[in-house]
Amino acid sequence: MAKEHVERDYAVVGSWEDTNITLTVLENYIPRFFRGAKLMYESRSLIPNFPSSEITLHSQSPKTVHNSKITNRNKNKRKPFVEPEVKEMIRRNFTNEYEFYYFCKQRLYKQYLALNLKELEVHGLLN
User: Fold this and answer.
1) Most CB atoms closer than 10 Å: which of 21, 87, 93, 96?
2) What Rg value do the Cα atoms of the chain yield, rounded?
3) pLDDT per residue over 51-102, tens digit each?
4) How far is the C-alpha of 84 from the C-alpha of 6, rounded, in Å?
5) Among the entry's GO cellular component annotations, what is one (predicted)?
6) What DSSP assignment string belongs to 7-72?
């Protein structure tokens, strides 16, 4: 039921785990609200106390390829060790949640790949 709800009611479901991909898909699927989102996110993250009102968005192409600046930003470097048995117990007890999470993640990746295929097609690189 949750999967049907996502398919029916949400254009994009992203995650902070895949920030770059999420923002790219949002910019392309919902440009009215998300045009320039990656630029704004990068600017605010790279320059402390940078007011978003000072960001000027030029008529740039909304197609933005993978950007390493924001790819690894949300990784936890101080991740504590978790016993494999604990991980397995959590997977067993949260089967539906894991399935839903991977469904949403796969959907986001398919949307991202569709954008890239469309870009290749536009440039005549896909035949």
Assistant:
1) 21
2) 18
3) 554 444 444 444 444 454 555 555 677 888 999 999 999 999 999 999 999 9
4) 31
5) Golgi membrane
6) HHH-S----GGGHHHHHHHHHHHSHHHHTTHHHHHHHHHHSTT--GGG----S--S-----TTTTS
